[in-house]
């Protein structure tokens, strides 16, 4: 049984690897097919749009059906349907462009639902295998990065060897293989397979519930919004800034491949290291460091340097740093989104984060044309940096990314972080969550009461002495009986000790007076000692 559960996890991860390789092959093979059959670059954009729009819409409106009819069955059916559609593209796509666009749109819709269904299959399979979810999400992300590199290289080989149609047939085979792996190896319970049916929700209720959940999750909304911005500028960098920089400074398409390869290699190396260390690393710090190190420096190095070696070094390090982002995001989604809503919420969040990609090329082209290449790079770097400061400024909410034991509080942030958070809250620029709290401390030491005020970790006043009566009066106003009793008990003990001291002092003075009287009788001449 244990081996079967492990085999299910390995099979599901392997299916995702094969699917990503196949999708990457078709990503290159289909545009090449359009170019060789129509010789019109504009039609390549039409085909890309025909797949992207249904992919986004199906992720939003099709995923409630996956919850109702079973995510496992939907994953198998969509993969089989994708295999048939890809076969039709290979067989008939080169004959009629209109038919090709229709088939590509159907393929996008199938993949939009199928990709989300396979993601929802992951948590129950991981739980059954006994593997930490954090490690699996890191491995999942690293496999995706690796598959994209392998798929691009394999697509080039297959297109050169078999032509674009042969590469598309190979992609159809990968979809069929994924369906077979899930059908044979993956087994989950009925409740895990049909969560929406178990809750008795209608289609519209399921759709509304997913939207309402995401609207109420401020942390997820903030993360998804930030990823929209970062994906937008990542796309601008890939399709506009880097090609322009290479043409202006190096004039060699080989350098374009070197830069893309450096980032991919760094992401693969970083992903492997992160998968090994993910259970020991704090997630919040990993996410912040990944974005700050791997984000804006990629733009700034192109703006300030024309040396390919410097650009490759920074790009490689950026790939290593960014390898922590997707696993952290995926794990947060799995942990915060209820199982019965995962397909719906994943569809919504995927639509938002994916929505920045089509806009990236336009924003990059506009900024490069209006401000020049260097100006566009500086603007993109500044915008990227501002977006990735969101977890720092709003650290009180974003620290929820870390796993905390029940009742535990996160560690105190650095003092500069508190100042930055408070400035952002007062300026109203960013939603930083609740204001930095003010604490007033009443302390008793060395027989005296003092009061101290702090804002976060910053001291607002030095310890100021107050009388016992003032301390008792102020605590009584709080309507906290236990605190009032504690202060009253200290006050009573002080008075009792004071009474004992006074009694001892009176007794000592009386004994001293008797001693003086005994040593100096009243009839003896001379001055008595004082």
Regarding CATH, which class of the domain at 1-128 and 158-200? Mainly Alpha
Q: In angstroms, what is the radius of gyration?
A: 34 Å
Q: What best-fitting shape do the alpha-carbon axes yield? A: elongated
CATH fold name of the domain at 1-128 and 158-200, please? Growth Hormone, Chain: A
Number of helices: 21
Distance between the termini: 99 Å
CATH architecture type of the domain at 1-128 and 158-200: Up-down Bundle
Number of strands: 4
Sheet bearing the most strands, described? 4 strands, antiparallel
Helix and strand sequence? HHHHHHHHHHHHHHHHHHHEEEEHH
Label the structural class: mainly alpha
Task: Please indicate the percent range of residues in DSSP E strands (runs of 2 or more).
Answer: under 5%
The percent of residues in helical segments reads over 70%
Could you report the average pLDDT, rounded to the nearest whole number? 78
Q: Which keywords apply here?
A:
530 residues; four-stranded antiparallel sheet; 4% strand; 21 helices; mainly alpha; elongated; Growth Hormone, Chain: A; 79% helix
How would you characterize the overall build of this protein?
With 530 residues, the chain is mainly α. Among the domains are: 1-128 and 158-200, Growth Hormone, Chain: A (Up-down Bundle); 392-404 and 413-436, no CATH class; 439-517, no CATH class. The chain has helices spanning 2-38, 41-61, 63-69, 71-92, 97-129, 133-185, 190-193, 195-199, 203-216, 218-249, 253-277, 283-294, 296-304, 308-322, 325-336, 342-388, 390-393, 395-398, 415-427, 468-477, 481-519, and strands spanning 438-445, 448-455, 458-459, 464-466. Strands 1, 2, 3 and 4 form a 4-stranded antiparallel β-sheet that branches. It is elongated, with a radius of gyration of 34 Å.
């Amino acid at each position: 049984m244990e081996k079967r559960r492990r085999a299910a996890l390995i099979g599901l991860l392997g299916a995702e690897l094969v699917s990503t390789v196949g999708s990457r092959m078709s990503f290159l093979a289909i545009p090449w097919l359009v170019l060789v059959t129509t010789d019109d670059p504009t039609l390549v954009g039409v085909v890309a749009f025909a797949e992207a729009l249904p992919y986004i819409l199906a992720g939003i409106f099709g995923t409630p059906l996956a919850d109702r009819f079973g995510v496992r069955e939907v994953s198998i059916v969509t993969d089989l349907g994708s295999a048939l559609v890809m076969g039709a593209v290979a067989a008939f796509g080169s004959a009629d462009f209109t038919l090709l666009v229709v088939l590509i749109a159907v393929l996008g819709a199938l993949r939009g639902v199928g990709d989300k269904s396979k993601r929802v299959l992951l948590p129950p399979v991981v739980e059954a295998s006994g593997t930490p979810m954090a490690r699996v999400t890191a491995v999942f992300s690293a496999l995706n990065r690796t598959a994209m590199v392998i798929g691009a290289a394999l697509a080039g080989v297959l297109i050169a060897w078999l032509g674009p149609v042969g590469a598309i047939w190979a992609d159809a085979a990968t979809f069929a293989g994924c369906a077979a792996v899930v059908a044979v190896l993956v087994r989950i319970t009925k409740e895990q397979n049909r969560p929406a049916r178990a809750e008795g929700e209608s289609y519209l209720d399921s759709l509304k519930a997913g939207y309402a959940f995401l609207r109420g999750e401020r942390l997820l909304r903030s993360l998804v919004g930030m990823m929209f911005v970062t994906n937008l500028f990542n796309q601008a960098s890939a399709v506009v800034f880097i090609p322009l920089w290479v043409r202006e400074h190096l004039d060699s398409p080989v350098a374009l491949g070197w830069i893309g390869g450096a980032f991919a290699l760094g992401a693969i190396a970083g992903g492997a290291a992160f998968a090994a260390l993910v259970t020991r690393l704090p997630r919040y710090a990993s996410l912040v460091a990944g974005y700050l190190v791997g984000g804006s420096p990629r733009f700034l190095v192109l703006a300030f340097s024309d040396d390919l070696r410097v650009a490759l070094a920074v790009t490689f390090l950026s790939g290593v740093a960014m390898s922590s982002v997707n696993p952290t995001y995926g794990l947060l989604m799995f942990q915060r989104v209820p199982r019965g809503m995962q397909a719906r919420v994943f569809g919504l969040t995927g639509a938002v984060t994916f929505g920045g990609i089509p806009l990236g090329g336009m924003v990059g082209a506009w900024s490069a044309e209006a401000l020049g290449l260097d100006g566009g790079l500086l603007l993109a770097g500044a915008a990227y940096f501002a977006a990735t400061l969101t977890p720092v400024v709003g650290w009180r909410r974003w620290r929820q990314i870390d796993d905390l034991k029940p009742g535990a509080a996160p560690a105190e942030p650095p003092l500069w972080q508190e100042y930055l958070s408070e400035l952002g809250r007062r300026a109203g620029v960013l939603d930083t969550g609740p204001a930095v709290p003010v604490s007033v401390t009443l302390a008793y030491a060395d027989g005296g009461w003092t009061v101290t005020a702090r804002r976060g970790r910053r001291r607002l006043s030095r310890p100021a002495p107050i009388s016992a009566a003032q301390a008792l009066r102020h605590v009584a106003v709080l309507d906290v009986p236990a605190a009032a009793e504690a202060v009253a008990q200290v006050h009573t003990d002080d008075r009792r000790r004071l009474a004992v001291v006074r009694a001892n002092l009176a007794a000592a003075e009386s004994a001293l007076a008797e001693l003086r009287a005994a040593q100096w009788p009243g009839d003896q001449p001379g001055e008595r000692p004082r």
